[in-house]
């Protein structure tokens, strides 16, 4: 009876092995924000998640021997989801900062920029600093590094926290807040589409929080981090990253 059971078990394992594709790549679930065009967003034409950082994740993973599956969530939920294993990677407009590096790892940076400021078009002042808005109601996105400096300045009537960048832009467009702060590439891209006709990007504004983007990796995944960094080095040397910057008009 035991021999029969053992034979059945061996046969079952063999069947499972045959059912699995040879050399199947490990799949990484990549968390991203769906409202940060052109960095990471839901493409209205294809109805699929798209953007510069998703292309970076997709191509880096391919070089490293992984497959990817993208999952959209709020920006503020990304790091908790990575740390608890709900996702395996973060690919979005997330700055590499020292506080974040204490809880997750980042790959080699792939793109750098600073924050931008938006106001209504009827406000034509050439602002250079958010300190020129004492007593105003302003907004920034939750989970980003932009919101705390605004609160700590202690000069505003209110600093509203938003789930999405588009929420900020809608409220500036409608005149519900005086100014909004967020990722310059994303705000510029949205404005180029004409979706917020009453809003302008303040070109005279001088960013105080320049930063770089990289893929977010869980702290205990040293091998995965090494593979992705090697892949990014390859992409930097062979021109893939330059091509992606051109594709998304970020250069």
UniProtKB/TrEMBL annotation:
UniProt-listed Gene3D superfamilies: Periplasmic binding protein-like II
Tree of life domain: Bacteria
Coiled coil location: none
Record SMART domains: PBPb (SM00062)
Record's keyword annotation contains Signal: yes
UniProt cross-references to Pfam families, sorted A to Z: SBP_bac_3
CDD domains: PBP2_peptides_like
Secretion signal span: 1-24
InterPro entries: Solute-binding_3/MltF_N
Ranges for domain Solute-binding protein family 3/N-terminal: 27-251
Keywords recorded for this protein, A-Z: Signal
Similarity comment: family membership: Belongs to the bacterial solute-binding protein 3 family.
Name under which the protein is recorded: Amino acid ABC transporter substrate-binding protein
Biological source species: Klebsiella michiganensis
Lineage: Bacteria, Pseudomonadati, Pseudomonadota, Gammaproteobacteria, Enterobacterales
């Amino acid at each position: 009876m035991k021999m029969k059971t053992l034979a059945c078990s061996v046969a079952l394992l063999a069947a499972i092995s045959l059912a699995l594709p040879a050399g199947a790549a490990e799949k990484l679930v990549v968390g991203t924000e769906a409202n940060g065009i052109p960095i990471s967003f839901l493409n209205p034409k294809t109805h699929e998640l798209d953007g510069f950082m998703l292309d970076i994740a997709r191509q880096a993973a391919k070089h490293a021997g992984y497959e990817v599956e993208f999952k959209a969530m709020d920006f503020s939920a990304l790091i908790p989801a990575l740390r608890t294993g709900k996702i395996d990677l973060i690919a979005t407009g997330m700055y590499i900062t020292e506080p974040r590096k204490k809880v997750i790892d980042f790959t080699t940076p792939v793109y750098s920029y600073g924050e931008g400021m938006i106001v209504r078009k009827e406000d034509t002042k050439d602002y250079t600093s958010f300190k020129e808005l004492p007593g105003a109601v302003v907004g920034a996105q939750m989970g980003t590094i932009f919101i705390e400096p605004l609160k700590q300045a202690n000069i505003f009537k209110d600093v509203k926290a938003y789930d999405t960048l588009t929420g900020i832009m809608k409220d500036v467009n409608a005149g519900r807040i005086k100014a909004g702060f967020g990722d310059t590439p994303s705000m510029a891209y949205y404005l180029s589409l004409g979706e917020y006709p009453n809003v302008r990007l303040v070109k005279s504004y001088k960013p105080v929080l320049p930063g770089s983007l990289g893929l977010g990796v869980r702290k205990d995944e040293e091998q995965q981090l090494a593979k992705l960094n090697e892949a990014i080095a390859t992409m930097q040397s062979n021109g893939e990253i330059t091509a992606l910057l051109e594709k998304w008009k970020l250069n």
